[in-house]
Amino acid sequence: MNTQHKKMVVTDLDGTLLRNDKTISDYSLHIINQFRKRGNLFVIATARPVRAVKNFMVRCDFDAGIYHNGALICDKDSKIGGFGIKDPYDVSRKILSVFPDVCLAVESDDVLYANFDTERLWPGYGFVYSDSFTELKGKTGCAKGIAVENALEPVKDIASEICESNEDDGVAKWIKENLL
Questions:
Q1: What is the largest CA-CA distance in the chain?
Q2: Fold exhibited by the domain 3-83+129-179
């Protein structure tokens, strides 16, 4: 395929590509595979850490991932960019020396470290996710910003188009109708 005609889809996961039960339908998987077989790129963008995405994306191939709201960028499994703290241990130690009773959690090398039981704040996941912020910021600089029908109203207000909901394979149906 001529790279001038190569397309790239960047999609959020929670509430967008993933259904409410955190699965991807066979239909969506089929459309994503067709899109990629034509030489196009399929990229995921999420607030989640890599370890959490692996659980949801085991059946779906993607070309790159943007994790931690852009703090980590990977081409498949290799880090190619992002931001981080050079010495999270040292920074954590300094914070705790000033605020010894603070609850502190640090994600480093895809492992969550905390001085408290993270289950009481983030049951079952160990992180906080706001898909509305990711979707609002994600539209900047793209050719089109597509919101799923179940998105928050401010997201839909700035979207170029609105596709069907995450429960109705909205992302896959839009790809099929517009890019295949």
A1: 58
A2: Rossmann fold (3.40.50)
Q: Please report which confidence band the pLDDT of residue 128 belongs to, taking 50, 70 and 90 as the band edges.
A: very low
Q: Say if CB 72 and CB 78 are below 8 A apart.
A: no
Query: Are 15 and 160 a contacting pair, CB within 8 Å?
Result: no
The helix/strand/coil state of 41 is strand
Question: Looking at the predicted structure, is the pLDDT value of residue 131 above 60?
Answer: no
Is residue 7 predicted with pLDDT exceeding 50?
Answer: yes
- Whether residue 152 contacts residue 132, with contact meaning beta carbons closer than 8 Å, is answered with yes
| pLDDT (average), residues 79-106 | 79
* Residue 169 pLDDT: 93
**Pairing state between β 161-163 and 146-148:** parallel
- Domain assignments of the chain as residue spans, ordered by start: 3-83+129-179, 85-126
Rama region for 23: left / alpha / beta (φ>0; ψ in -120 to 50; rest): beta
Distance, CA of 62 to CA of 171 (rounded, Å)? 14
- What's the angle, vertex CA 119, arms to CA 73 and CA 111, rounded to 5? 35
Q: Which of 151, 131, 160, 15 lies closest to 69 in space, CA to CA?
A: 131
